[in-house]
């Protein structure tokens, strides 16, 4: 009888762990640079992507888990005398990794491609 109860508990635990929402996390990114990791949301949270402007000019990004009550809102971080440091809009989604990791910026892709091709040509000439 205890084996049956233990088996039911183990299956229930695995099922509960499988329900956790996985999201990309980036505490603060500037422009298209946002270094991400993965995190597991707590109950009552969803994945979010935040995009906004710092000092009304510089594009910023954040990603991670957010309580559902804070989803789809614009947040201002004020400084002294009501001057705003940044404004960010946080948009939520509810599927695993739905707040996608950023792509490499286009200016980075060309040098990487050229370096790879150059290394390949050098290696092929060395081996022949």
TrEMBL record:
The keyword tRNA-binding does not apply. SUPFAM superfamilies: Snake toxin-like. GO terms for biological process: sperm-egg recognition. Pfam families: UPAR_LY6. Residues 19-101 form the UPAR/Ly6 domain. One of its GO terms (cellular component) is side of membrane. It is found in: Cell membrane. Keywords: Cell membrane, Disulfide bond, Glycoprotein, GPI-anchor, Lipoprotein, Membrane, Signal. It is a lipid-anchor; GPI-anchor. Residues 1-20 form the signal peptide. The keyword Membrane applies. Gene3D superfamilies: CD59 (2.10.60.10). Its main location: membrane. Belongs to the SPACA4/bouncer family. This is UPAR/Ly6 domain-containing protein. It comes from Synaphobranchus kaupii.
């Amino acid at each position: 009888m205890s084996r049956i109860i233990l088996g039911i508990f183990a299956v229930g635990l695995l099922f509960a762990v499988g329900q956790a929402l996985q999201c990309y996390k980036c505490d603060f990114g500037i422009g298209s640079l946002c270094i991400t990791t993965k995190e597991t949301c707590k109950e009552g949270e969803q994945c979010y992507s935040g995009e906004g402007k710092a000092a009304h000019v510089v594009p910023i990004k954040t990603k991670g888990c957010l309580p559902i009550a804070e989803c789809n809102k614009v947040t201002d971080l004020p400084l002294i005398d009501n001057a705003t440091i940044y404004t960010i809009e946080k948009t939520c989604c509810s599927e695993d990794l739905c707040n996608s990791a950023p792509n490499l910026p286009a200016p980075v892709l060309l040098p990487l491609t050229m370096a790879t091709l150059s290394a390949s040509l050098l290696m092929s000439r060395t081996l022949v």
